[in-house]
Amino acid sequence: MNVVPELNLEKPKKATQSIFLVCGLGISSWAIMVPFAKDRLELNDSGLGLLLLLLGAGALTMMPVTGILIYKFGSRIVMLMASLLISFTLPLLLIMNSVLAMGFLLFLFGSAIGTVDVAMNAHGVQVQNLYGKPIMSSLHGLFSVGGLAGSLGLGLLIKLGLPPVIAATSISLILLLIVSTQYRFLLPSKYEKEVSKRFDSPTSTPAGNKPDKKQSWLNRSVLYLGLLCFALFLAEGAMLDWSAVFLKEDRGVDVALAGMGYAAFSVAMAIMRLLGDRLVMRLDSKKVVVYGCLIAAAGLSLAILTPWLITSLLGFVLLGIGAANTVPVFFSEGGSLKNIPASVAIPAISTFGYAGQLAGPALLGFISHHTSLPIAFGFISFLLLLVGLSYSFKKIS
Questions:
Q1: How would residue 342 be classed by pLDDT, with cut points 50, 70 and 90?
Q2: Whole-angstrom distance, CA of residue 3 vs CA of residue 387
Q3: Domain boundaries, the chain
Q4: Cα–Cα–Cα angle for 157, 160, 163, nearest 5°?
Q5: Closest of 185, 124, 147 to residue 350, by C-alpha
Q6: 1-199: which CATH architecture?
Q7: pLDDT tens for residues 140-151?
Q8: What is the pTM assigned to this prediction?
Q9: Does the structural domain 216-397 have CATH classification 3.90.950.20?
Q10: Do domains 1-199 and 216-397 have the same CATH topology?
Q11: CA end-to-end span of the chain, whole Å?
């Protein structure tokens, strides 16, 4: 039920979905550019890895700051500025010939990605609170759709003969078109403030007083949700960086087809997220997380314990199905915690999650180096099981 009847929430909802789409398109388009950057700058794998860390460093630097920007300017203007920065920097990533300049640009690009990630989730929570019903899964579903569209779309444009810079510029123009047409439909700041008053505690403290611990990152609820997001994003990062290696080395798949594992995972996740809001309403959020984590853990176990390609792909599909709607539930809960402003909880949870996605590949590489990749995947499966079991004992306020 819309708790502010005079406001038509369909347009803000669709506009927020469009920002999730922009974020997915932007980050996945960069993934296609990585080989071009490596060749142009004549980097080895180690040098490329260090360069890529700057993207994550930019995101992690801006995520905590974004909460302050949202409180001061509102999430709408923050999303606009960050989306514009994504659009303007994307083509430049294909023309920088200096490692130093490329590193600086990647830091800016990562900062924009991190900023829009926090702002769009905070905005989505506010729209959901006004709606009075779940919409976060459908928002994250558009991010997944954007991820698929970006990776396939830019590759297709290049395959059709467009120079990479022109292809990237075309994607940027699409991003600019989406943002420029949807910005005015995003939730106005006056409604954001109204929702904050209704669902959050005050976001400021009297002069001279110490900040309330409940409004800090050290709050138990924020830390708990952040750690859950860390585990789920770690699993997603594992699929992105290691699923192709697993299929090639452990299932004998040709390198040209090894990407089908991540594709199966991504498609399953996108579909389930688009259906997720109805699922949350029918089952309730706790069941979605608990059953989802059990399905995800079982799927990944199936992928590593059976020797056949078809069952491995089925396992990745089950992982996508199970994990799809857990993170949207965590963000929804973070945005409605009692006595904790969304402008504090969402940046904290986002930072934990992104740290998991960045740390995941390195952690799996360490485990795999000392044991094997299937055992490393088994560790992820165990983490997912722990998330599901711990959440089953959690009281939902």
A1: confident
A2: 32
A3: 1-199, 216-397
A4: 65
A5: 124
A6: Up-down Bundle (1.20)
A7: 999 989 888 887
A8: 0.80
A9: no
A10: yes
A11: 19
